[in-house]
Structure formats: structure tokens, C-alpha cells
């Protein structure tokens, strides 16, 4: 529960900072968790998500009003009641639906039509297959030789901003969010007067693949839109990692991240606009990550 | 010291004890990622054959990481009782395994020889044991500890209430805590992982959990699992902490990556004994997990089972109240699937107990691991049979802050009823007073969190 959790906390804090500095508070009236914890079921049937229905699970709570108060205070799966000491069938199935969505997003493939629609060509890392991708994070950080050749032949060298998209740990995250985030990102780059290079898609990428691509194309700044490790609350969450002059030897604290991009987190259209603003500051300050003043 | 073995017509030569220990491990993706695992099943067996014939003195005389260069090695060396070591130094690892498993070897016999063992010997033994060996040997060892109440008795299965919240909302934390208590969970500790690692936030959560404990007179202990430095700051500002927490690694470099060293732990130990609110004598909570040293590039080519055993060697110095491995949290590059997680959970529990630690286990997985809740059900039953001191209780096993799945309030309640295990005695008496439990079974009131409003 150590580093990963601390990393996630860090990421969350960076997010909070970004949100507070980059957007008016009024744009975030809702709590930072979805209204209904069971993503899969909620998405299948929005009508089932009334909080009033939830409070009826415990048959005779000592305090009915108090139960509603508890349920509205946390996305945790509480007030769920039991059959003997086991969970009720509906709760157990809801949990399994959310896990199924999370697993499928790891083993899924990004819709090729979507990539085509945005004119993204595809390269691969050395990951080989999903099993190896999970076991060997190092292989997801290097574009394979064929891919590197393709990048060199098709991309503009030394662009101001290089955009890269990768499935990472969730193909669903790309399928769900790219259509919204990508046009808004291009718009915001344009409005800040930033020129984008030739974008492409990396299958089997890890965050640090930014450094290899940085070596290949030598951009001023790079933004990687990548699928996050799926949680049960959302299996469709995307992160945008940004770095000023990513190169071999770049350390994690040099990257700036906006995480939790999905319909019920940071909306993708909004995220696209933030990214442009962050990149603009990176260019001005010639820095990113912990060295960037936002 | 013999470092070669012949198997199926091939002779296998191993360079040193470090290589034998690594290759004798059951298959783990983390050892493969480190490039130190056996190449195939036959080489693994060849290493186990060599390991079985090594003596305990061979292992001690050929340190993997010399005490001169690593402070965790120094702590482990200094804890060895030389008289007891002298009695067993000529045992082979095979003989150590059989001694632990023999019917006439009782709990106090094991406690005695454990004082002559180093963490590396304990790890070596685990590598020669089957899953059922690990369960049976561990089940013989009772480690009782006391903070505000006693846990660890034979027949007791305690639970940590882990009522985390994605923004540290006190109302939200309390809501999950009330749910936990209504299922009889929370005797090991009320332990919260904070989102915000600041002294102010830690102090606030400690105060609020203490208030709930005082209002309902709950016999348990509280803890906030921030970095130890943050907790120390909060305690110095007057925060009521019964336990102090820290994650441990099995090497000095690994601990450096966690931002700690032995001097800092000593300082925290002194502070919690002087200014903590726990009765004691046991006032520490540690977490560990196979793979953390490799992920910090601080493994020195040593396998993850041996490094995990060394975490326990370090933990032992502080006589903790509770220790658990967070077995499936670090990711599939260290433990790939449910088979590896189940094995690691049983190894860790055994290795901790043999070093006289009050071992619990966070039976858990992330969504990119090839495992699901059924696998957690399996491991939880195996550990309950092995006499695990406590498990982690999360609402429906889904931690909405850390984004991983563990075991649920329902799961701990089920294991207790099915395997005739009970909450910690003082806590059970409280549950009876609250009308939640009767004769070791949950009453119809159980499962209603509004009991505490």
C-alpha cells in the first residue's frame, strides 16, 4: 500500500491543484465520485440508480433518515445488507459486473475505426502480447524497430507539441474518451498558438514510452493520452501525461499528469482544454512536472 | 558447502547461496522480471535439492547482503540468540522443515528455535514447503499481542476496519466504519489510508476515530496509515494515536526509497511510547509485500521471498501489535496470477509467524492481475485455517480510495461462523453488549450501520 498508493495520492493532488487553478470552481458542483458506485450496472440501466431505492436494502434500519445520510456520504458499498453472513445476490452481481468491465478493458482492443477517423497510424512497443505487457513493463517503454522506422518516416521532426495516444491498461478509456478529448485538445493548442506534429497511436504503451518517442522526434513537449489501470468505479478512465522535452533518463517527477478523465470524472472535453493551457505554461517556463508552476 | 546437484542426467551448478535461494522459489513473475528465476521446472527442482542439503550455518556464513553494507542485515544479525543458533547450526534446511512439521514439536519448541534463526533461513525453509506445509506449520504458532486489547489467541480471527474515503471526508469514513462495526469488524484496528498526507489531516482523522471509540466505548485501537514522519508530526501536535504505522522493505536501499531508515523508526518508536495513546506494550503496525524492493530497484539480485522474510526480521525489532503483507497490491509484474498470489500469501504468513510476528494478511488483487474475488475467497479460507491473526475488512471488498479489492466485512463474518472462530474476546463482549453478536453469531441487528448514529 506504499508507493503505488502514494503515487496515486500525488496524482490526485496534482489533479486538484490543476482543477483549482485552471477552471472555475462552479464547473465542479458534483462530488468527485460517481453518484452510483456500480459503473457497469449504472451504465446499463441509469434508471436503477436512485439513492432512495438503496436505503431499502437494510430491512428495518434503526434510523431510516440516518441511512440516507450515510449512503450519500461515500461511494463505498455500504448499507448493502446480507443473506446470513453473505452479500445479497444483486450486490454480489453488481460487484462482479464492475470487475468484468475492468478486466475486459485490459484485454480489449481500441476500435480501429476510431483511430482511422482521427488519422492516427499505429505502431507497437516490444510488448508482444497482453500477458507479457503485464509482466514486463520495461518492454512497453520501447517502440519496436518497425514502429520506430514508421515514426521516423511519417512524422514531422522536432514539432512544438507531439500528441501520442496509447491503450495502456484500458482500451475502453480510449474508445470512450478520444472522440471528445482529441478535437478539444486540437482547438486549445490552436487557440494558444501551439503547432502539433504528426499524431499516432501506440499499442502496448507504458507512460515512459514518452522518452523513447522523445528521442526519436525531439519535440518541445509531448502529451500522451493513455488508458489508466481500471478501477471498479470506472474502467474507462484516461490520463494525460505531459512532459517538456522528454528524453532518455527523464524522471517521473518531470511529468505533469491529469488523471481520472472520464464522463463522471474530469469530462474529456474539459480535459482537452486544460492540456492546451498546461502545455502553454510548459513552453513559457521550459519545465514540467514538479518544476512547473501552474 | 555443496552447490551442485544432478537431476535427470543433467548436473546443475549454482554460483552461490543467493542463486540457489532465487532459483528454488516457486514461479513468480517478479523473480523473472529481475532475471534471477529458474529457467525451467527442472532447474527449479535442482535448486531445491541443493537448498535442502545446505546447513543453517552455510546460510549464515554466506550472507546475501553483508551486515557491513546494509542496516537491515545488521538488525537481523543482532537479533540472533547465539546459544540457540549453536543448537541448530548443523541442521540442514530439510531438517528444519521436518522439525517444524513433527507432531511432537510444540509451539514453545518453535518459539525457542526461532530465536536462533535468521530471516534468510526462514525464507529457505519456506521454499521447501508445500502450501499445506506452510498452513500447518504456521497454525502451530500463536503470537499474541496487546495494544488496548489482546489479539492473536488461538481460535480468534480479528479484522481491520479499513473505512477509506476518496477525499478523506470524515462523514464518509464514519459511514464505512459504522458498517464495519455492525458486522463485528474492527478489533484488530480502525485503520485509515489517508488521501492527503498532511499532519493536520492525520490528526483530524485520529481525533474523529478516537471520538467514535470513546462515544461507543469500543475496545480497539486507531491508526492512520500516512508516512511515519507525518504521523510523528501529528502526534507531536497532540493527535491521539494508539498505533504508529509504516511500510517496510527488506533492504536499506528499499527503505530509503520509502523515506525511512532504522534511526527514524527508532525515533518514532520512542515518540509513540512517550506520547502515544495505546496501552501497549505493542504499539506498531507494519505493512510489507513481495516485490517492493524490485520496484524500487533496491533488490541487490535477491529474490522477493527472501527479501520479504527480511522485512519481518526488521519488523521484529519493534515488537509490533500487527503486521500484514499486502499480498496482491503491487501488481502482476511481481505476482502474476491467483496461483502466485495464493502462494505468496501463505509464504508471507508462515515466514512472519516463524519470526514471532502477529501476522495478518491483506488478501487482495488489482484489476490488471489475473485473479478475481473467488481467488480471494480461497486464500482467505486457507489463511483462516493457518491461524492468521487478522484480515482486512473493506465494504464489499471494494476499496473506493485505493482502487483495489480486498476482503469484505461479510467475508470475515463468514469465516468466523463457518470455522468456529471468534472476534478478540474483549471486542466480542462489546459486540454482545451492543446486541450485534450472540454466542459467536451475528444477531438480526447486525448489518445496520445506523446503530451507531
TrEMBL record, chain A:
Known catalytic reactions: ethanolamine = acetaldehyde + NH4(+)
Region Disordered, residue ranges: 20-64
EC number: 4.3.1.7
Basic and acidic residues biased stretches: 53-64
Domain of life the protein comes from: Bacteria
Cofactor: adenosylcob(III)alamin
One Pfam short name: EutC
Keyword Lyase among record annotations: yes
InterPro entries: EutC, EutC_C, EutC_N
Cofactor: binding details: Binds between the large and small subunits.
Cellular compartment(s): Bacterial microcompartment
Subunit structure: The basic unit is a heterodimer which dimerizes to form tetramers. The heterotetramers trimerize; 6 large subunits form a core ring with 6 small subunits projecting outwards.
Similarity remark: Belongs to the EutC family.
Biological function: Catalyzes the deamination of various vicinal amino-alcohols to oxo compounds. Allows this organism to utilize ethanolamine as the sole source of nitrogen and carbon in the presence of external vitamin B12.
NCBIfam families on file: PRK05465.1
Protein name per its UniProtKB record: Ethanolamine ammonia-lyase small subunit
Organism expressing this protein natively: Gordoniibacillus kamchatkensis
Phylogenetic classification of the source organism: Bacteria, Bacillati, Bacillota, Bacilli, Bacillales
UniProtKB/TrEMBL annotation, chain B:
Organism, as annotated: Gordoniibacillus kamchatkensis
NCBIfam families, per the entry: PRK15067.1 (NF011649)
Location (main, coarse): other
UniProt gene name: eutB
E.C. code: 4.3.1.7
Residues the entry annotates as binding adenosylcob(III)alamin: 194, 246, 295, 401
Protein's name in the database: Ethanolamine ammonia-lyase large subunit
Localization annotation: Bacterial microcompartment
Cofactor comment: Binds between the large and small subunits.
Keywords, sorted A to Z: Bacterial microcompartment, Cobalamin, Cobalt, Lyase
Coiled-coil features, chain-numbered ranges: none
Amino acid at each position: 500500500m506504499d508507493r503505488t498508493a502514494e503515487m496515486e495520492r500525488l496524482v490526485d493532488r496534482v489533479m486538484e491543484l490543476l482543477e483549482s487553478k485552471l477552471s472555475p470552481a462552479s464547473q465542479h458542483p458534483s462530488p468527485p465520485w460517481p453518484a452510483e458506485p456500480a459503473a457497469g450496472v449504472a451504465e446499463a440501466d441509469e434508471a436503477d440508480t436512485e439513492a432512495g431505492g438503496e436505503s431499502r436494502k437494510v430491512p428495518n434500519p434503526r434510523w431510516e433518515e440516518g441511512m440516507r445520510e450515510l449512503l450519500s456520504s461515500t461511494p463505498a458499498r455500504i448499507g448493502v445488507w446480507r443473506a446470513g453472513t453473505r452479500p445479497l445476490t444483486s450486490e454480489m452481481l453488481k460487484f462482479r459486473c464492475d470487475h468484468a468491465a475492468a478486466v475486459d478493458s485490459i484485454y480489449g482492443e481500441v476500435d480501429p475505426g476510431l483511430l482511422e477517423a482521427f488519422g492516427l497510424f499505429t505502431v507497437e512497443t516490444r510488448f508482444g502480447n497482453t500477458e507479457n505487457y503485464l509482466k514486463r513493463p520495461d518492454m512497453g517503454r520501447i517502440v519496436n524497430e518497425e514502429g520506430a522506422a514508421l515514426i521516423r518516416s511519417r512524422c514531422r521532426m522536432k514539432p512544438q507539441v507531439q500528441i501520442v495516444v496509447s491503450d495502456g491498461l484500458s482500451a475502453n478509456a480510449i474508445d470512450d474518451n478520444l472522440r471528445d478529448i482529441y478535437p478539444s485538445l486540437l482547438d486549445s493548442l490552436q487557440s494558444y498558438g501551439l503547432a502539433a506534429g504528426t499524431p499516432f497511436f501506440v499499442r502496448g504503451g507504458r507512460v515512459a514510452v514518452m522518452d523513447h518517442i522523445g528521442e526519436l522526434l525531439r519535440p518541445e513537449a509531448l502529451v500522451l493520452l493513455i488508458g489508466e489501470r481500471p478501477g471498479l468505479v470506472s474502467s474507462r478512465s484516461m490520463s494525460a501525461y505531459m512532459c517538456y522535452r522528454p528524453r532518455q533518463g527523464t524522471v517521473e517527477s518531470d511529468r505533469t499528469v491529469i488523471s481520472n478523465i472520464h464522463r463522471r470524472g474530469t469530462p474529456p472535453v474539459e480535459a482537452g482544454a486544460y492540456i492546451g493551457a498546461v502545455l502553454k505554461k510548459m513552453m513559457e517556463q521550459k519545465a514540467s512536472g514538479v518544476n512547473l508552476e501552474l | 558447502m555443496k552447490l551442485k546437484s544432478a537431476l535427470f542426467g543433467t548436473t546443475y551448478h549454482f554460483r552461490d547461496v543467493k542463486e540457489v535461494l532465487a532459483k528454488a522459489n516457486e514461479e513468480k513473475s517478479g523473480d523473472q522480471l529481475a532475471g534471477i528465476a529458474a529457467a525451467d521446472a527442472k532447474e527449479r527442482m535442482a535448486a531445491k535439492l541443493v537448498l535442502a542439503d545446505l546447513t543453517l550455518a552455510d546460510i549464515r556464513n554466506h550472507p546475501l547482503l553483508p551486515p557491513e553494507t546494509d542496516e537491515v542485515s545488521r538488525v537481523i544479525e543482532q537479533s540472533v540468540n547465539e546459544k540457540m543458533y549453536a543448537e541448530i547450526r548443523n541442521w540442514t534446511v530439510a531438517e528444519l522443515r521436518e522439525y517444524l512439521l513433527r507432531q511432537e514439536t510444540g509451539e514453545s519448541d518453535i518459539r525457542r528455535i526461532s530465536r536462533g534463526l535468521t530471516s534468510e533461513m526462514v525464507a529457505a525453509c519456506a521454499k521447501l514447503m508445500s502450501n499445506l506445509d506452510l498452513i500447518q506449520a504456521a497454525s502451530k504458532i500463536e503470537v499474541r499481542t496487546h495494544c488496548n486489547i489482546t489479539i492473536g489467541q488461538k481460535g480468534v480471527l480479528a479484522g481491520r476496519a479499513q473505512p477509506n474515503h476518496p477525499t478523506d471526508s470524515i462523514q464518509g469514513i464514519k459511514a464505512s466504519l459504522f458498517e464495519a462495526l455492525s458486522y463485528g469488524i474492527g478489533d484488530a484496528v480502525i485503520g485509515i489510508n489517508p488521501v492527503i498526507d498532511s499532519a493536520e489531516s492525520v490528526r483530524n482523522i485520529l481525533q474523529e476515530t478516537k471520538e467514535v471509540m470513546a462515544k461507543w466505548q469500543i475496545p480497539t485501537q486507531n491508526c492512520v496509515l500516512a508516512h511515519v514522519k507525518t504521523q510523528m508530526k501529528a502526534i507531536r501536535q497532540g493527535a491521539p494515536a494508539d498505533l504508529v504505522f509504516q511500510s517496510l522493505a527488506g533492504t536499506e536501499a528499499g527503505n530509503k526509497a520509502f523515506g525511512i531508515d532504522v534511526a527514524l523508526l527508532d525515533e518514532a518508536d520512542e515518540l509513540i511510547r512517550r506520547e502515544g495513546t495505546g496501552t501497549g506494550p505493542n504499539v506498531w503496525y507494519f505493512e510489507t509485500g513481495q516485490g517492493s524492493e524490485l520496484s524500487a530497484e533496491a533488490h541487490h539480485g535477491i529474490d522477493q521471498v527472501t527479501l520479504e522474510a527480511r522485512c519481518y526480521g526488521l519488523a521484529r525489532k519493534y515488537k509490533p501489535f500487527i503486521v500484514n503483507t499486502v499480498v496482491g497490491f503491487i501488481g502482476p509484474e511481481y505476482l502474476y496470477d491467483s496461483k502466485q498470489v495464493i502462494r505468496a500469501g501463505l509464504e508471507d504468513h508462515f515466514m512472519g509467524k516463524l519470526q514471532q510476528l502477529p501476522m495478518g494478511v491483506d488478501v487482495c488483487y488489482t484489476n490488471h492481475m489475473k485473479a478475481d474475488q473467488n481467488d480471494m475467497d480461497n486464500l482467505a479460507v486457507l489463511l483462516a485455517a493457518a491461524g492468521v491473526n487478522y484480515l482486512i475488512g473493506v465494504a464489499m471488498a471494494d476499496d473506493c480510495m485505493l482502487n483495489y479489492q480486498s476482503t469484505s466485512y461479510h467475508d470475515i463474518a463468514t469465516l468466523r461462523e463457518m470455522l468456529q472462530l471468534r472476534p478478540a474476546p474483549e471486542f466480542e463482549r462489546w459486540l454482545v453488549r451492543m446486541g450485534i453478536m450472540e454466542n459467536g453469531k451475528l444477531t438480526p441487528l447486525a448489518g445496520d450501520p445506523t446503530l451507531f448514529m
